[in-house]
Automatic annotation (TrEMBL), chains A, B:
GO terms, biological process: isoleucine biosynthetic process; L-leucine biosynthetic process; L-valine biosynthetic process
Cofactor(s) demanded: pyridoxal 5'-phosphate
Reaction catalysed by this enzyme: L-valine + 2-oxoglutarate = 3-methyl-2-oxobutanoate + L-glutamate; L-leucine + 2-oxoglutarate = 4-methyl-2-oxopentanoate + L-glutamate; L-isoleucine + 2-oxoglutarate = (S)-3-methyl-2-oxopentanoate + L-glutamate
Name of the molecule in the record: Branched-chain-amino-acid aminotransferase
SUPFAM superfamilies linked to this entry: D-aminoacid aminotransferase-like PLP-dependent enzymes
Family from the record: Belongs to the class-IV pyridoxal-phosphate-dependent aminotransferase family.
Xref: PANTHER family: BRANCHED-CHAIN-AMINO-ACID AMINOTRANSFERASE, SUBGROUP IIII AMINOTRANSFERASE
The EC number(s) this enzyme carries: 2.6.1.42
Species of origin: Caryophanon latum
InterPro entries named in the record: Aminotrans_IV, Aminotrans_IV_CS, Aminotransferase-like, B_amino_transII, BCAT-like_C, BCAT-like_N, BCAT_family
Entry keyword set: Amino-acid biosynthesis, Aminotransferase, Branched-chain amino acid biosynthesis, Pyridoxal phosphate, Transferase
Source taxon at top rank: Bacteria
Amino acid sequence: MTYTFKIEHTRIPKQKPATDQLGFGKIFTDHMFILDYTEGQGWHDGRIVPYQPILLDPSAMVFHYGQTVFEGMKAYITVNGEVSLFRPERNFARLNASNARLCIPTIDEELALEALKQLVKLDRDWIPTAENTSLYIRPFIIATEPYLGVSPSKKYQFIIIMSPVGSYYAEGINPVKILVEKQYVRAVAGGTGEAKTGGNYASSLKAQEVAAKEGYAQTLWLDGRENEYVEEVGSMNIFFKINGTVVTPALNGSILPGITRDSMLQVLRKHNIPVQERRISITEIIEAHKQGTLEESFGTGTAAVISPIGQLKFEGTEYVINNGEIGEVAQLLYDTLTGIQYGKLEDVYSWTVIVK
Amino acid sequence: MTYTFKIEHTRIPKQKPATDQLGFGKIFTDHMFILDYTEGQGWHDGRIVPYQPILLDPSAMVFHYGQTVFEGMKAYITVNGEVSLFRPERNFARLNASNARLCIPTIDEELALEALKQLVKLDRDWIPTAENTSLYIRPFIIATEPYLGVSPSKKYQFIIIMSPVGSYYAEGINPVKILVEKQYVRAVAGGTGEAKTGGNYASSLKAQEVAAKEGYAQTLWLDGRENEYVEEVGSMNIFFKINGTVVTPALNGSILPGITRDSMLQVLRKHNIPVQERRISITEIIEAHKQGTLEESFGTGTAAVISPIGQLKFEGTEYVINNGEIGEVAQLLYDTLTGIQYGKLEDVYSWTVIVK
């Protein structure tokens, strides 16, 4: 099926940033995609327009009741000079899963992917080319009906914006120190933890602030029922290598089903590295550390691909993991994913989508 | 202390709605209040301007990470023709409590109250005068920094908008049917349940949809840890009268500290009606119903004041309360609060703030 979108080109192209000024999520490309939803009419009027502010009534529901969902993915310039997306169809499928939880009407995933391809093609020159740089892509949906009643909105906007981003590890992969959080909870069974929605991130800010004050980079979240089972780290999924087996919390409804997480699991299985998706308690982690079998730990997500954990602090005690260095498995996974993303390795998993 | 705000009057006053077209939260007055926050500068540039759309970058954090808080209160025209606010200083205190949980800088509560008074005075003619109508007031704060990093915003807007609203009970107080929710969870200890923030409301929509499909008006929320202890009903606090004693869940961190709830407790104590704030399980409620001691139940909040519960459905069984009629205590509380709000009863609690 072919989708045709109206395209309004910018008249004032912005200056592109130098590689060393990229950072993350502060600079945006020349264009954006917008799709409107109106009850009774469905999603309509998909269009590419110059990057521009959004005009909303102050009573628009997004300002009051948090009915939002979003996604995060990247476009890469491969070593062959092609434009590559990494499993974008999975992001739009997850966006629809989030929509279902938040009572937002589902989008046409094919249409969304086609819109993204056209937008990326139009702003192709914004994809940075220096090593390990990329174009961060942020599709999101906001409830726009001007109404203060607590009910699903009758109007929405689906928007895609894009931001050129620098190398996450400009100075080499640096393992981080993580604080295990016992007071604040990110999500609970029956809540919105497995949806990518604003409220999950808003509720995480306080614990993040506490961790930062103590000199820790991120929070390790435990479950909301028993404050005992490991869920995520910051806004990443988490993995542990214990006595040769890689363990990650099973998707239980309160954990985000990460696309990087899923990709890691596939790579691990392909390499015949023992892997388990199961419930894992903080007590088990600490016990493994005491017995010398906690060999590695790392977070996984779109931004960093892998973020090795060099130290955990739990109930006042610090536990150093793998001498605070990146482990072999983390390095293998990082090299494999980035290798495929930048076209340096053969994509035996059929993950990449080349934008022609 | 005196606060002076720049006032820009509307040039095109809108037509005011007829009493029978008021509804809730769809019509807004001629003016709004805006206060900006910029890191390093603090809150600044408080101003009253014509009611108008907000212009925000599509990367503004409110669209992505749900960093929002809000309040809800009302202005009334009393039987003496005065303009009365009900405990507004409590709303701004709670707004600041929500701010603290959401890592939003606190506001000057005196300034906020003064801004509200000036705004209400300016749009005084928008307060409807028909019986049990009022002006609904919505102060809210949104994170406006254009940045996709997950961290507290460095820019915010505090805004007050106002909406004339009709009588909640135009056809008399009508008890509602409530579905006890076992699958979805509104909030959990350690989460954001006691803050008035968008994410709590976004996460409630799905259960509300399920309840509506089964013909129920609202969801009765149980706690997120054990799915056993009663927390709230819809977006109201909940009360039960069991064997002559009025019981409401104690504020435990995941329950909204309702200002109507607090007012009800004061009225009950003044009338020497036995009252308990404590943990209360759904098992106890059902048991009391079976023994014939569940005499009343009702929700309390700004919109309805009191919403009597005529029927509970739990695990497939329906439990009718007080023959589906409003109870004596609910009626007393409703009459007392609305009596004070509209100046029909002496305000022995010093709750009302008259706008001169």
